[in-house]
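Worked example 3 (structure in, sequence out).
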C-alpha cells in the first residue's frame, strides 16, 4: 500500500455477499462504503467498526488493531466481523485475540472471526439463537425461530408468545450489531451471509448439532455421535430412515422433505424421549401414530403439508402430548379436531391455516384451550355452528363464540363464512393483532388486494359479504376504530365511507382497499358539520377498483390539516363515473404523496379539479413535492393533470401550475394529450424512466428545454404513437448550442 496515504475507505463493488474480494488500494466511481481504514504511523487500521475514538488512535488499542487487521489478510469479511466482535471489549481480550491468531495460524479465516464473535457474545441465549439461525437456513421466518425458542424453553423469564417474540427480536438485533446477521429482504425474516453461516454450522457441529441441506445422506452418523446429538436438522435431503434412531439427548428433530410419499417408520421416535421440538414437513403420516406415546415431553409439534393425518393420530396427540405449547397442522389434510384436544390446556399457538379439508371442530375444544394466545385458521372449511339458530340443533361443531372464553388470546387469523356466524359479543377489538376475513370474494382479486401473510403482525379486516347491514353492526363498527388494513368488497348500501362507517375518521387505518362496490359514490361526502373533519390521519395507501358509480373521493368538505397527511400511494382502476381524483383545496394536505396510478376510468378528465372558479382564474400553484411516480393509462376523456390551461383542441398534461421536484417515473398509455409539458421550467430534473404508449395526439415527445433538464433519465420507451413525428423538438431551430448539450 502507498505509504503516503493517511486514510482510505474499503469498498465492495459488484460483489455478492458470498464472494468478497481482497482490499483494493483505491477505487473510483459511485460505490458503497463498507468501513474506513486510517493510517496510524506507517500502518492502516479499521477504526470506526472497532470503536476506536479519534483521541485513541495512538494508544495500545490502535497498535493491537493494526496487528489484528494485518492477520486478517485484507479480507473484508474477516476484518469487519472481527472489528465488530472486539468493539467495547477490554485490551486483554484484544491481546488474547492476537495471540490466538498467531498461535493457531488462523490468518484471514472467516471461521476464526465468526468463532471469535460467537465466543464474545454476551450470554448463552445469544449463542443459542445464533446457532439456531444458522440451522434454520437462509431468509428464515422470525416466527419459526420464535416457535422453536418456545419449544426449547430457553428464554429466561419469558412465558408468553408476545414476550418471546419481543425477546427474539431483541436478540436478533444484537446479532446484527455484532455482524453475525444481515438485513433480509423482509422485516419478518433474518439472513446470514454464507461465510458466516458455514462457520456457524462448524460451531454447531462441535456442540452436538447435526445439520444437512439439499444433499444425499448416504450413511447416518455412528451410534456414539447419535447418542450425543441434541439437535438434527435435515432440509430437503435424499435420506432413508432406519427403523429407529437412538438419540437419548435429542431435543430438536426437524425434517423438511421433498415429496409427500416419504413415510416415517413405525416407532421411529422411540429412542428420542427427551424430544422437545418435532417439525415434519411434506411427509406421509400413515405410520406415525405408534410413535406418539414416546413424545410426552414434546412442547412443539409441527406436522405441515403432510398427508394421511388421520383421526387416530390426532387423538394420540391429545392423549400423550399434554405439554404442547405449539401445535401446527398447516397445509396438511386433517379433517377434524377431536374432543381429546380439550386436554391440551397448555397450548399457546394453534396453527390450522390452509387445512382445506378441515370441516369439523367438536364443540368445547376451542374454549378448553384456556392458555391459547394465537390461533391461525385461514383457508379452512370449518362449518361453524350459528348461535341461537334452531335449524342448527344437530350441528355438533364449535361456534365462534367459544373464542370469547380465551382470555389470553392476542392474535387470530380467521376466515368467517358469513356475518351470521359472528358471535354476539365480538372481542376482536381487544386483540394485539388480527387478520379477519368475513365472507368470500366473488371475483379474482388483483395482487394489490392480497391478504397479508399469516406471520405479519397487524390489524387486518376484509369484509367480502354482500349483507346490506354488516357495516352497521356494533362489533364491526368497533373494529373500524383500530383496524390498520381494511378491504371492502361488494359492501352494498353504503354511499359514503366516512360517514357511514366511522365518524372518527379511521384513526389507525394505514391501507384502505375498496373493490366492486357499486353503491359507493364518495369517500367523504359533505354533511352539515360545524367543525373540520379529521379523516384518515394515518392512511398511507388508498386502492380503489371497479367502483362504477364513484363520482369523487372527497366532495366539498372542510378537512383538518392532519387529514390524509401520510397518504403515499393512490391507485384507481375501472371507476367509470369518476371525473377527477383530488379537489384543488385538498392538494395542500397531500404532503407525503409519492405515487399516483389511474387507469381505465372512462370519464376521468383531470387529476386535480378546481372547485372554486377563483382558484382556476388565479392559476393557483399545486405542489406535489414528494411525488415520485405518475402513471396514467386508458383515460379517453383525459384533458390534463389540472386542466385549467387545457382546451379540447390543445390538451396539456402538465404546466407551470404544477410543481414536481422529485418525479422519477412517468408512464402514459392511451391518453389523448397534445403536449406533455407547457412552460419554461420543466419539472423533470429527477426523472429516471419515461414510457409513452398509444398517445396518438402527440406529434413530438420532448422539447429541447425538457431534454436538457432530464439529466438523470435512464430509460425511454415510445410505442404505438401513430402521429408522432419527433422524439426531440427544438423550439428554436437556431439554437444549435442547446442541441450540442443534449447530445453530450
Amino acid at each position: 500500500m502507498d505509504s503516503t496515504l493517511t486514510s482510505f475507505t474499503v469498498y465492495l463493488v459488484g460483489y455478492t455477499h458470498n464472494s468478497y474480494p481482497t482490499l483494493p488500494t483505491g477505487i473510483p466511481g459511485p460505490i458503497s462504503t463498507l468501513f474506513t481504514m486510517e493510517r496510524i504511523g506507517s500502518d492502516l487500521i479499521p477504526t470506526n467498526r472497532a470503536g476506536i475514538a479519534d483521541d485513541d488512535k495512538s494508544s495500545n488499542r490502535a497498535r493491537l488493531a493494526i496487528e489484528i487487521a494485518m492477520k486478517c489478510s485484507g479480507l473484508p469479511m474477516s476484518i469487519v466481523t472481527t472489528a465488530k466482535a472486539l468493539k467495547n471489549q477490554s485490551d486483554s481480550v484484544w491481546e488474547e485475540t492476537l495471540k490466538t491468531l498467531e498461535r493457531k495460524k488462523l490468518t484471514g479465516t472467516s471461521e476464526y472471526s465468526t468463532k471469535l464473535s460467537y465466543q464474545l457474545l454476551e450470554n448463552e441465549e445469544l449463542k443459542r439463537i445464533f446457532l439456531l439461525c444458522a440451522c434454520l437456513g437462509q431468509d428464515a421466518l422470525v416466527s419459526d425461530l420464535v416457535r422453536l425458542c418456545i419449544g426449547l424453553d430457553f428464554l429466561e423469564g419469558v412465558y408468553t408468545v408476545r414476550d418471546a417474540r419481543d425477546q427474539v427480536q431483541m436478540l436478533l438485533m444484537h446479532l446484527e450489531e455484532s455482524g453475525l446477521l444481515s438485513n433480509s429482504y423482509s422485516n419478518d425474516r433474518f439472513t446470514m451471509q454464507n461465510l458466516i453461516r458455514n462457520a456457524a454450522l462448524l460451531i454447531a457441529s462441535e456442540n452436538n448439532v447435526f445439520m444437512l441441506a439439499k444433499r444425499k445422506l448416504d450413511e447416518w452418523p455412528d451410534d456414539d455421535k447419535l447418542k450425543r446429538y441434541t439437535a438434527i436438522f435435515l432440509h430437503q435431503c435424499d435420506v432413508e430412515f432406519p427403523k429407529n434412531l437412538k438419540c437419548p439427548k435429542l431435543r430438536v428433530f426437524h425434517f423438511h422433505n421433498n415429496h409427500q410419499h416419504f413415510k416415517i417408520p413405525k416407532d421411529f421416535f422411540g429412542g428420542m424421549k427427551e424430544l422437545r421440538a418435532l417439525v415434519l414437513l411434506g411427509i406421509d403420516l400413515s405410520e406415525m401414530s405408534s410413535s406418539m406415546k414416546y413424545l410426552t415431553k414434546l412442547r412443539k409439534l409441527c406436522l405441515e403439508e403432510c398427508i394421511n393425518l388421520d383421526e387416530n393420530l390426532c387423538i394420540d396427540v391429545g392423549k400423550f402430548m399434554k405439554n404442547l405449547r405449539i401445535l401446527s397442522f398447516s397445509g396438511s389434510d386433517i379433517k377434524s379436531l377431536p374432543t381429546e384436544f380439550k386436554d391440551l390446556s397448555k397450548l399457546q399457538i394453534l396453527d390450522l391455516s390452509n387445512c382445506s379439508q378441515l370441516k369439523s371442530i367438536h364443540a368445547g375444544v376451542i374454549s378448553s384451550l384456556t392458555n391459547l394466545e394465537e390461533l391461525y385458521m385461514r383457508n379452512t372449511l370449518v362449518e361453524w355452528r350459528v348461535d341461537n339458530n334452531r335449524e342448527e340443533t344437530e350441528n355438533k361443531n364449535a361456534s365462534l363464540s367459544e373464542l370469547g372464553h380465551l382470555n389470553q388470546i392476542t392474535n387470530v387469523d380467521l376466515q368467517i363464512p358469513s356475518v351470521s356466524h359472528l358471535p354476539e359479543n365480538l372481542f376482536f377489538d381487544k386483540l394485539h393483532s388480527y387478520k379477519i376475513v368475513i365472507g368470500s370474494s366473488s371475483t379474482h382479486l388483483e395482487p394489490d388486494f392480497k391478504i397479508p401473510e399469516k406471520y405479519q403482525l397487524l390489524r387486518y379486516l376484509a369484509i367480502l359479504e354482500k349483507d346490506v347491514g354488516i357495516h352497521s353492526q356494533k362489533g364491526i363498527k368497533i373494529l373500524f376504530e383500530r383496524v390498520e388494513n381494511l378491504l371492502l368488497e361488494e359492501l352494498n348500501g353504503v354511499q359514503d365511507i366516512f360517514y357511514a362507517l366511522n365518524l372518527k375518521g379511521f384513526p389507525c387505518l394505514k391501507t384502505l382497499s375498496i373493490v366492486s362496490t357499486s353503491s359507493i359514490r364518495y369517500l367523504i361526502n359533505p354533511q352539515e358539520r360545524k367543525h373540520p373533519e379529521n379523516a384518515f390521519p394515518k392512511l398511507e395507501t388508498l386502492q380503489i377498483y371497479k367502483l362504477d358509480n364513484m363520482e369523487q373521493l372527497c366532495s366539498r368538505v372542510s378537512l383538518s390539516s392532519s387529514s390524509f397527511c401520510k397518504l403515499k400511494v393512490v391507485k384507481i382502476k375501472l371507476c367509470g363515473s369518476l371525473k377527477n381524483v383530488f379537489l384543488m383545496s385538498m392538494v395542500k394536505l397531500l404532503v407525503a404523496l409519492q405515487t399516483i396510478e389511474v387507469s381505465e376510468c372512462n370519464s376521468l378528465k383531470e387529476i386535480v379539479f378546481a372547485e372554486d372558479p377563483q382558484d382556476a382564474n388565479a392559476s393557483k400553484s399545486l405542489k406535489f413535492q414528494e411525488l415520485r411516480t405518475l402513471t396514467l393509462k386508458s383515460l379517453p376523456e383525459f384533458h390534463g393533470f389540472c386542466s385549467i390551461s387545457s382546451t379540447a383542441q390543445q390538451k396539456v398534461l402538465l404546466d407551470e401550475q404544477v410543481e414536481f421536484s422529485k418525479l422519477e417515473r412517468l408512464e402514459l398509455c392511451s391518453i389523448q394529450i397534445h403536449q406533455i409539458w407547457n412552460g419554461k421550467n420543466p419539472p423533470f430534473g429527477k426523472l429516471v424512466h419515461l414510457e409513452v404508449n398509444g398517445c396518438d395526439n402527440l406529434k413530438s415527445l420532448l422539447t429541447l428545454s425538457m431534454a436538457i433538464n432530464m439529466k438523470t433519465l435512464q430509460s425511454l420507451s415510445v410505442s404505438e404513437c401513430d402521429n408522432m413525428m419527433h422524439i426531440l423538438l427544438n423550439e428554436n431551430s437556431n439554437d444549435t448550442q442547446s442541441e450540442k448539450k443534449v447530445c453530450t
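Notes: Residues 244 and 268 are 4 Å apart (CA to CA). Confidence is low (pLDDT under 50) at residues 1-55.
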